[in-house]
Amino acid sequence: MATPPGHPSAQPEPRRRLQDIMDHDDQDDLALGTDPETSGDEADGTSVAAASRATAAPVLGEDGQPLYCTECQDQGADVRCEQCDELFCEVCCAMLHRTGKRRAHTFRPLRPDATGESPNAPVVDPTASAAQAEPGTIPTDPALKIAASEVDFNAVSGEVTFTDGDKDFSAWIGERAKFIPLRLTLAERKYLRLLEAALNVSEYTDRVDILSYGNKSRRMVTQIKDLCAILSGLLLASDYRAGRKLFEDRAFAENADFFEDIFEIGRRHKIMNPEKMRDAYGKLMYLLQDSMIPEVQDLLQFSCVKPVTTVHSYLEDLGGIDLLKDPLVAVATREIIADGKPRPRIQAETRQKEQAVETLCRKYASADLPKEAIRQCLYSIGDNHSYLRTNRDPCDKVLSYLARYFTPDNVEHADFSLAIAHGRSGARLSHDHSTQYHYVKQTLSLWREVAHEMFMLWSLADQDLLSTRNPYRLKDTGQGLNRVQASPRVSRAIHTILHRAQKSAGYWVGSSVVHLADHNVPNALMFIDKYNQVASILNPVVTCLQYLDTLPAALNITENGSHGDGIPRPAAPGTEGNGTSAGGAPVHAGTPYGSASANSSTSSFFANLSSTISSTLTSTFGGHTGNGTGSSTTGPIYTQPHYRQHARGLYQYIVQTFGSVESCKKLILADFFRYAFDGSGGDNFYDAGSCIDGRLTSAWNWCSQIEKKPYYPVFLLSGFVGFNGEGY
Fold first, then answer.
1. Does the keyword S-adenosyl-L-methionine apply (predicted)?
2. Tens-digit pLDDT profile for residues 470-523
3. DSSP, residue by residue, 558-616
4. Is the dihedral of CA 546, 552, 558, 559 positive or negative?
5. Cα–Cα dist 703/718, whole Å
6. Cβ atoms 32, 463 nearer than 8 A
7. How far apart are CA 15 and CA 32, in angstroms?
8. What are the boundaries of each domain within the chain?
9. How many CB atoms within 10 Å of residue 614?
10. For 78-108, how does the pLDDT look when each residue is reduced to its tens digit (9 = 90+)?
């Protein structure tokens, strides 16, 4: 008897799976990276077994045919829902059974290593205990005899925590290296400057992304050739010998390798430095996107695209992939941050790192793999740690402030309540204090996961943007003409990350809708650019709070509110001497900038303090050099005389305006947690609200109103420049 089409055992027609397409070497498929399913759990360092399960072949049915997920139809089935009588992969099962009556459904695992438990059950991170372990002492043995199982990369990116756990870090770093871009050499940086100069004067998008009745393919080819001509002329002007070779063969197709290399250099530089090439990178990617159109390729007669060079691919080409399996890589790539450490410890860590690098160079150097290439790979991995510290760790720090100053079950004072109501102060959501606490915590945790996987997401975005089988359409999205393009690889990856965050949270507040390929987020490039702004939003807030944390130590203020020299702390009028009024509420002066006495006491240093503090914050909060080594400051910056002088004036201003430093920090955090996560920033709930992208829209809306906040002078006096990625 024939199987009914709707029956779960009915098999679809043979089709090419997403994994097969991404692993194919065909040029049309543009296999610029690896399958996202092979890196989601491994890059997070949570489960090598989960990664192997993701790359395993689909389960076979009774007829020998592979079983695929009924929902997405491109992933192997992991479980069967007993009530729905359908097959699902892990992500789709959790998405469909997260709420409602389906939440109580039961599942039968199809794989031997599957758990079969409800997808809504919270999952404990197996590396949590390792990440919370106390750092061990730094060994001083020049031989650096450190076992691989003693190093934990899942800790804060700036530190390598020594633990007793047994963990395969070689597998972790091997998977992570597949997405870490290789650091540019000095010669490549020269070409990068030429590319930026050419893109800055190019009007590619202005000439191409318009509504016209002319032949668009010919217009694209003309603009691409114009940019190539500009690059050739700039190269000839900067290096006559190298530029002459380009003009010997006047056909651009003869110099295809040069253009592929220079465009790849720009893409690789942008991935590691998201704050660079803000205008030029969009032109570059849209130009490369058009160059992959078959009609344009026929007219252009050469390719402009090559895979981005990563640490893994570079070592694989040179036959040095075994380098990533060496346990000394953990020591050679660790990021050294001063952060108040004594000079002997900083020097010891620096010597250990240098010795580890030289040891690896001597051990793995060969005729095909020179020592300089090994150093370049090790420094690139170190750059990865610096990237995570700048872009991921702010989420961890804000989460720590949330846990330190707020609890979901108790409100210290009405001014510190996180409750929001629809219609008040522009809020679109209505949450009580407890709900808003969990909403903020889950949002920051999700941002943290996205920042941690950003290199993988960027690789997948490249594949979606430059795919020949995924054309875009020009559409008016309400913000001008934009290229709307489906992004299946990025969509799959972000839903996997969201699924992991929801499992960790257990109870999810708000919507789970991810906007992609619509008028909110037209394509993968916009998606990457949007989530790259998380660090630009959180870093200024963290910098201000960390600076306020140093004020008591700078002025030697004891817990009872007095200075070490016996001088009492200045108290605001009408307070009980502890920064609060008689009723216990924090004190606010009559104006946002405090009382007249506060303004007069700070007028002498207000103008020049911001620039002074801005220049010292780098060394205070972990400034680092290009090789991953932090500043060599011998002690805390707040022990220096000029810092104490400025800190005293700022401290007096804060006390007379807000009552105390702690009250000031709580007010900043309470306002941020309320109105940066209130669903505002859009014209309707679909554009803003509690959806995954609307949470970031609300944060940007809060940033645009920072000048109206009563604590804005505190931001300025702590080195704040703006939310555009500068000043931290």
1. no
2. 899 999 988 889 999 999 999 999 999 999 999 888 788 988 888 898 888 999
3. -TTSBBTTSPBPP--TTB-SSSBBTTSPBP--SSTT--HHHHHHHTTTHHHHHHHHHHH
4. negative
5. 16
6. yes
7. 22
8. 1-31+48-125, 136-182+311-391, 186-300, 453-532, 535-717
9. 18
10. 888 888 888 888 888 887 787 777 778 888 8
